[in-house]
Amino acid sequence: MSETLTFPHLGLGTVYLRGEEGAGIVDSAIEAGYRLIDTAYNYENEGAVGLGIRRALARTGVEREEIIVSTKLAGRYHERPLADRAIEESAARLGHGAIDLLLIHWPNPKQGHFTEAWAAMLDARERGLVKHLGVSNFLPEHIEELHSVSAELPEVNQLEIHPMFPQDEAVAWHQDHGIAVESWSPLGRGELLNHPTLRALAEEHHTGVAELILAWHHTRGLIPLPRTSHPERLRDNFEAARVTLDDTTVATISGISEGHPHRLWDQDPAEYEEF
């Protein structure tokens, strides 16, 4: 097993960032200080992400070893040997040798093959195709099943987390088990940027609402993955860790979900499947 990953305070989400535009955003993000770039087989942009990284490395002097590139295994490839070929394809499209961090995108529990996918990932690590392993959208019971068949826990779980869905209990479970937590859709797809409570708190802290929310993730020990197609937003998001929040402010932000916490698209990992 490789040395445990040390995660930066946030990463770049790349869903919908494709082609030259996507490569340009990745290039600009690395120049702005980002060292974690998140993609997925199903985002159809592993090639653009790899291209953007290569351009940034050639232009900025950043070393490849400084960057963590994560991608995700799609649900239609959980079964062996489909998983083996899909992992090889992801590595080839990214074009940087071994994948730094590979996640299972969704558990797809009705299909019941995610332990096969995990076995394929463990083998891929032995073959030198992958350095670190994790999951995405897994519930604790799914992770315990992986642990029962491999005696190994994933290093990270990527979960939907934002102020309308803070997932306090899940976050505590993962932190108790030494599993890092990444937040997808950390800004709630922009739905929260005009929330009156958040606007008032942002004004009080002399920052923007997006930066306030990202600071909320950071203060809770989470690794948010905001996506933006606007280069000027990259640095604002990156600098959000400088915003200091006390426990009362963190609780107030989490409290806006009280009574009606909700996922953005009703994607409950116990039922939802993505292929």
UniProtKB/TrEMBL annotation:
Gene3D superfamilies according to UniProt: NADP-dependent oxidoreductase domain (3.20.20.100)
Record organism = Corynebacterium uropygiale
InterPro entries recorded? AKR, Aldo/ket_reductase_CS, NAD(P)_OxRdtase_dom_sf, NADP_OxRdtase_dom
Q: Which residues bind substrate?
A: 105
Descriptive protein name = Aldo/keto reductase
Q: Which GO terms describe its molecular function?
A: oxidoreductase activity, acting on the CH-OH group of donors, NAD or NADP as acceptor
Q: Indicate the annotated site residue(s) for Lowers pKa of active site Tyr.
A: 72
Cross-referenced PROSITE patterns: ALDOKETO_REDUCTASE_1, ALDOKETO_REDUCTASE_2
Give all residue intervals belonging to the NADP-dependent oxidoreductase domain: 11-257
Does the keyword Transmembrane helix belong to this entry? no
Q: Can you tell me which family this protein belongs to?
A: Belongs to the aldo/keto reductase family.
Q: Which residues form the active site?
A: 43 (proton donor)
Pfam families recorded:
Aldo_ket_red
Query: Highest taxon of the source?
Result: Bacteria
Tell me the keywords, alphabetical order.
NADP, Oxidoreductase
